[in-house]
Write a structure and sequence with these properties.
Helix content is 29%, strand content 21%. It contains 14 helices and 19 strands. It has an eight-stranded mixed sheet with strand order 12-13-16-17-11-18-10-19, covered by helices on one side. It has a six-stranded mixed sheet with strand order 2-3-1-4-5-6, sandwiched between helices. Helix 3 crosses helix 7 and helix 4 packs parallel to helix 5. It is globular.
Length: 497
């Protein structure tokens, strides 16, 4: 029986965010255990709509032995502390060494991890794995659509298979793609070779959304290319523009069957298509007053306000107050904000109790880049443990934890205050605390795009609102120091392809 080692070591690093990501962050988890190994990985992720869930299901369906090593994916946040990275990687490599011999390695990575000492953590992970397994054991990694892909990542792996969707609703399918390619390699029926084409473009997250043009058109082109003879996989990465590193930006990786020239040709073709559509990737953010005014004028909800600048799913603190303040000042009826992370306010609200009036100092306690702390008087409507399971199309069935959570009502606005920083992209974040999104006129969401998978079909209108923050979708407002230049839209760039 074939034996395939599998593991996951992921982090999406926002180098503009405050603070370091520590070992405790890796150990803490995101609603499921943080540092999982062995049977715990199987018990937690088997059947879940994630890459590793697909790896585990495929083992049963395809008849190979899965050797689960280590799996961890803390919340996106600031630079990873070097000691924490070294410790977690050492754990993974030790388990990899202990699992020998095996026929292949499947890794669930992200593609945008940055440590204090490494701009390209994934390249380092793959190189260290390759040192142990040697040149002949297949190593295939899955990547997020927001990966910043480097030459080292391509060189040290046999294939990189990225998500095709944003919101990320295809992680399971891409995991299955990785398994199929791995089994074909083990059987000797294919000999993958890959080529990378980096595109000198920073694309704000809303324009990376694959539900609409131009990104949907680029993905369609990638799918068409995958049908061509000799092409095994095409990955289009929009990049994670909040990492101030040389390899930041959009890219294309093409894997061909033994034909490197073909891989290079197709990678450049698709990269050129991305570049040629660059003006279509420009982003306009909507002033809060305009978005709220639309809802008040039409009276049709829910109108969704996407506060991408304070998106915890991209490393922001999730305690920004600019959108909340605007909703309170407008006294907009049937409004809700999901979420504001503020453990101090949660504790005081719980101390006051359900039904009680309390004055809280809410939000803006991480830094001074996401608004000011607001003095708000309201009442506590509900206290919850903050646990729920995703029921929408993204990471279906995965457990999430907001920590202790309260619904704090200020005028017409219901504010979900939490202990944990978590992106509320699934409607259960609201429904679990008794707020039905369909009943709201206005919903302020700390999310850039992922919310569209579950909330989108309910919405009467969606606005990407103009707020300050370390995850500002308008990348021209970020202060880059280490990024390779020139880079669109920061600079004028001559034809790169």
């Amino acid at each position: 029986m074939k034996r395939i080692a599998l593991g996951g070591l992921s982090h999406e690093t926002n180098t503009f965010a405050e603070g370091l990501t520590t070992f405790d962050d890796f150990a803490r988890g995101r609603g499921f255990p943080g540092l999982m190994s062995g049977d715990t990985i199987i018990e937690t992720l088997k059947g879940k709509s994630m890459c590793t869930g697909a790896f585990l299901d495929a083992a049963e369906e395809q008849g190979f032995e899965a050797l689960p090593l280590l799996w961890t994916f803390p919340q996106p946040s600031g630079l990873v502390e070097q000691a924490a990275y070294d410790r977690v990687l050492a754990m993974l490599l030790e388990k990899l060494q202990e699992a020998l011999p095996f026929d292949g390695v499947l890794l669930e990575l992200h593609g945008a991890m940055v440590t204090e000492g490494l701009e390209d953590a994934e390249g380092d992970i793959l190189a260290r794995v390759r040192e142990i397994v040697g040149p002949d054991i297949p190593v295939i990694a899955t990547l997020d659509l927001h990966a910043n892909i480097s030459e080292q990542m391509v060189r040290e792996s046999d294939a990189l298979i990225g998500y095709d969707t944003y919101p990320h609703v295809d992680a399971y399918e891409r995991g299955m793609d990785a398994v199929r390619l791995m089994l074909a390699m083990i059987d000797g029926s294919v000999s993958p070779v890959s080529a990378l084409a980096q595109v000198p473009m920073l694309i704000g997250p809303p324009r990376q959304c694959t539900l609409s043009s131009p990104m949907s058109d680029i993905i369609a082109l990638a799918h068409e290319a995958e049908e061509r003879p000799g092409i095994l996989n095409v990955t289009v990465a929009g990049g994670f523009p909040f990492a101030d590193i040389a390899d930041c930006g959009a890219s294309v990786v093409v894997t061909a069957d033994g034909d490197e020239a073909l891989a290079q040709e197709v990678a450049r073709e698709i990269a050129r298509a991305v570049w040629d559509r660059r003006d279509d990737f420009r982003l306009r953010l909507t002033p809060l007053s305009e978005a709220i005014g639309h809802a008040l004028e039409t009276g049709e909800g829910p109108v969704l306000l996407a506060d991408g600048s304070d998106n915890p799913g991209g490393g922001a603190p999730c305690d920004g107050t600019v959108m909340l303040e605007a909703l309170i000042e407008a006294n907009a009826p049937r409004s809700a904000v999901a979420i504001i992370r503020d453990p101090e306010s949660v504790a005081k609200a719980i101390e006051a109790g359900v039904g009680e009036e309390v004055t809280l100092q809410v939000g803006a306690k991480t830094d001074d880049r996401h608004g000011e702390t607001l003095t708000l008087t309201g009442y506590v409507r509900l206290i919850s443990d903050g646990h729920y399971a995703n029921k929408g199309p993204m990471y279906t069935g995965v457990q999430s934890s907001m920590g202790r959570t309260v619904v704090f009502v200020v005028g017409n606005v219901q504010v979900i205050l939490t202990e944990n920083r978590i992106q509320p992209y699934d409607c259960e974040a609201m429904r679990s605390v008794g707020i039905e999104p369909r009943d709201c006129l206005l919903i302020g969401l700390k999310s850039a795009v992922h919310f569209r998978a579950d909330y989108g079909p309910l919405a009467s209108a969606i606005f990407e609102v103009d707020t300050p923050g370390v995850h500002n979708p308008d990348v021209t407002k970020l202060d880059f120091q280490r990024l390779r230049r020139p880079m669109w839209p920061l600079d004028e760039v001559t034809q790169p392809f």
